[in-house]
Write a structure and sequence with these properties.
CATH class of the largest domain: Alpha Beta
Number of helices: 14
Helix content: 25-40%
Strand content: 15-25%
Structural class: alpha/beta
Radius of gyration: 22 Å
Largest sheet: 5 strands, antiparallel
CATH architecture of the largest domain: Alpha-Beta Barrel
Number of strands: 18
Distance between the termini: 54 Å
Strand order of the largest sheet: 5-15-16-17-18
Length: 469
């Protein structure tokens, strides 16, 4: 029996746009029924009427929550390296210095503020690629899952759906090079890491808002033996758990991998692991045509983070080639230099336009859509949901009741409907179009305001004051 009902004059369903949609929501926060053309249905008269078109909530497949507090603080010439030589690698050293300061309370406060911002922007689920495990000296907390639990608490306080991905980090470079001092808060061996994952699985089993997976950080941070041992151990707990990994983000990473293995990173991974649909390869910026085609055929998701990739100077993903081979992809906000699915989608397409000097590039492939904005939105809903391993990304029975209500009265959206509405959301203007947000059957944002935004912001302000001091 439905716990409550909603009525939308227009909603994006798996088969396309539908009118007069009645949503029946079960007590567990899932969609019990989705009934289009239901204006005459007996339940429609008593249902809560949505104030605008309804979209599935957007999955954010790649987040480093703590980096939200340093966004915008590394944009001065020479700040992260010699003048004219700033790069991803010099930025990383600044990031290590920042992360070395954080207390558990601060980690939770930053994550909660970030998740409020995500929800207000229309992200309803997040994949948290979580580095921080130990205290600033690299020692385990009394509860060795302390910092993971702070992330989970932040998600529960704010209401966002969470796929928590503890990071496996053992080494400082390809071939088992020793880790540096800036990495000591991240480090585990395979046994210690699996103990952490098992504890999280036991504590949060059965919670439909939380999924536990793993994130081997990168091929430079794990050895082949460590990777094999950890995945084998994970499979004993949950052989469908998501596996995320950074891959081929920077040219130097590719060069270093070749020096170590005589193979490129994506090539090595495909040759040495059974990569399939439970995997998410984050960035995958630098691939050959052969790697691109092979990766697409595995069914794995590529996690694209265009605003962070632009901010760090990573390069352009070969999206056109990947889509030609029916590749699956989703978006993430990564370092949170921007917290906006609209901006990620816009720059995904604009990057390709700049690369090929043409327009409407990602609409040219039949597996997306003739409508660029609508096609991208649908594609990243599916890819994001797959990568997070939860029943999200579509308004359909059995899926979570995660939905976004659009304010169609925004100037850029007036007179638009259906796929043209989605095109306008992605490409027209910078005003946030999100009015209301529901996650797991609960309203978390109403009329643009998050239910907990004031106390969350106060804690975040206090945290920044401490860090800046």
């Amino acid at each position: 029996m439905a716990a409550h009902t909603l009525f939308a004059e227009s909603a994006l369903l798996p088969d396309g746009w539908a009118d007069d949609v009645l949503f029946e929501i079960a007590a567990d926060g899932s969609l019990a029924a989705v009934l289009p053309d239901a204006a005459a249905h007996p339940g429609a008269a008593h249902a809560h009427r949505l104030a605008g078109p309804a979209l599935p909530g957007m999955p954010n497949l790649h987040s480093h929550a703590f980096q939200r507090a340093m966004a915008g603080l590394t944009e001065q010439v020479g700040q992260t390296g010699a003048a004219g030589e700033d790069s991803f690698w010099t930025w990383r050293q600044v990031m290590y210095g920042f992360v070395g300061q954080l207390s558990p309370d601060q980690v939770q406060a930053i994550a909660a503020q970030l998740y409020v911002e995500m929800l207000k922007a229309g992200y309803t689920a997040v994949g948290e690629f979580h580095y921080l495990h130990h205290d600033p000296e690299g020692r385990a907390y009394a509860d060795f899952a302390e910092l993971s639990e702070r992330i989970i608490t932040a998600a529960q306080v704010t209401g966002i759906g969470l796929t928590h991905l503890p990071v496996l980090y053992g080494y400082g470079g390809f071939g088992g090079q020793p880790a540096g001092a800036g990495q000591r808060r991240f480090l585990h061996d395979a046994n210690g890491f699996l103990r952490l994952v098992n504890r999280l699985l036991q504590r949060h089993d059965g919670n439909p808002q939380i999924r536990i997976g793993i994130a081997p950080h990168s091929l430079r941070a794990v050895t082949p033996e460590m990777l094999r041992e950890t995945i084998a151990g994970l499979d004993e707990f949950d052989d469908e758990a998501p596996i995320h990994i950074h891959i081929a983000e920077q040219v130097k990473e590719v060069d270093d991998c070749r020096a170590w293995s005589h193979q490129r990173p994506v090539e090595w991974l495909l040759n040495n692991q059974a990569v399939n649909g439970r995997w998410c390869l984050v960035h995958a910026t630098h691939m050959t045509e052969g790697e691109t085609a092979r990766l697409a055929r595995t069914g794995a998701v590529v996690g694209l983070c265009p605003t962070t990739e632009g901010n760090l100077g990573d390069g352009f993903f070969q999206a056109q080639e990947f889509l030609r081979h029916r590749g699956v992809f989703g978006i993430g906000s990564d370092s949170h230099i921007s917290v906006s699915p609209v901006e990620e989608l816009r720059w995904l397409e604009y990057g390709q336009r700049l690369l090929y000097r043409r327009r409407n590039i990602l609409a040219a492939n039949g597996n997306v859509s003739r409508s660029v904005g609508a096609g991208l939105y649908r594609a990243v809903l599916a890819g994001g949901a797959q990568s997070l391993g939860r029943p999200i990304g579509q308004l359909a029975p059995g899926h979570r009741a995660d939905l976004v209500v659009i304010d169609a009265g925004k100037p850029a959206l007036i007179g638009t409907a259906g796929d043209v509405l989605l095109d306008a959301i992605v490409f027209a203007g910078n005003e946030n179009p999100v009015r209301d947000v529901m996650v797991g059957g609960k309203w978390v944002v109403t009329e643009g305001h998050h239910v907990a935004e004031d106390p969350v912001l106060r804690a975040y302000r206090a945290t920044l004051a401490q860090l800046m001091a």
